[in-house]
Amino acid sequence: MMTHSDVMDSNVPAAATPGATHAIHQLLSARRFRPVEALPWLLAAAVYFVLPQYFQLGAQVLIMVLFALSFDLLLGYGGIVTLGHAAYFGAGAYTAGLLARYGWGEPLSALLVSGLVAGMLGTLAGAVILRTKGLALLMLGMAVSLLLLELANTATDITGGADGLQGMDVRPLLGQFEFDMLGKTAYIYSLAVLFLAWVLLRHLVNSPFGRSLVGIRQNPARMQALGVSVWGRRLTAFAISSALAGIAGALSAQTSQFVSLSVFSLELSGMVIVMLEMGGVGRLYGAFVGATVYMVAQDTLSKDQPATWLFWIGLLLILLVLFNRGGLLGLCDTVRRRIAHKEVS
């Protein structure tokens, strides 16, 4: 198997490399991988071997990381603030759920279809709401989520309404691996999908397209003057982000084999913003940290203090916003700089 160093050190011109190898080269060449970037994946592997009793929680954490990553492309890189990102997560969840319920139980193809449906929905919605800004953009984004919530609630015969979508028949992954009660298959499946999405996003944000998004976030008027299609770039980012959110929703439906109306809730849209603020916006890895801390704190604190667990989440968020705008990753950077400064002085 060709390793990363083999690919990076190869003297073969990129144009001469064939098909899949050329695609991998393009993905890896945007920016060299640093050793620290292996840390999330090593921790995920450690959970698999050391904490098998947490497979189900681990799969939920990985799905939320993917959802937060999709939103980070909008908020952290594109500077697009919306309160309706759950609409695309829910669209993917219901698409995968309905496909499994009505005979299309093959998980991988259903995952792709769900991402496509959510991406198309995001393109249509983005073409309208991205023509606005500020409060209007917030309200229209929220309206899309509420419209889908009401649609799913009233179409009881198809979606199950308030009782949720049940009766799904998700077939074994690759025809071999059943979705078991312990969540082992769900964990590996979610981890593999998250890794592919992370590689894609990592390449995207380090590409000229990703850099132009950052430029648009910082000064859209100047980017427009330079000839960049600001609306077109933002709409493309919106469509990609929506598709990835839909894939996260589909993963949730396939691994839990249940979909409730909460996938369209404003609470879920707000939760993903809190996750990113806690971890660090616009850094990719902030999604890993924020979603993991939030989900683990929710699982742990809600057992011991079910009435007050949100208080502690809120308190942590307030402290981070007031004293360290970069979230937990920003806090790590601050500590590291102070240690380095002391060593130099």
Low-confidence segments, given as residue ranges, are 1-17
* Strand fraction: under 5%
Query: What is the straight-line distance between the termini?
Result: 47 Å
Query: Looking at the structure, what is the overall shape?
Result: globular
Q: Largest sheet, if any?
A: none
Beta strand count? 0
Name the structural class: mainly alpha
- Total helices: the number is 16
Report helical residue fraction: over 70%
What is the H/E order? HHHHHHHHHHHHHHHH
Question: What is the rounded Rg?
Answer: 21 Å
Average pLDDT score: 86
Can you offer a commentary on this structure?
This protein has 16 helices and no strands. By secondary structure, the chain is mainly alpha-helical. Helix 5 (86-101) crosses helix 12, helix 13 (266-279) packs across helix 14 and helix 13 runs parallel beside helix 16. The chain starts with a helix and ends with a helix.
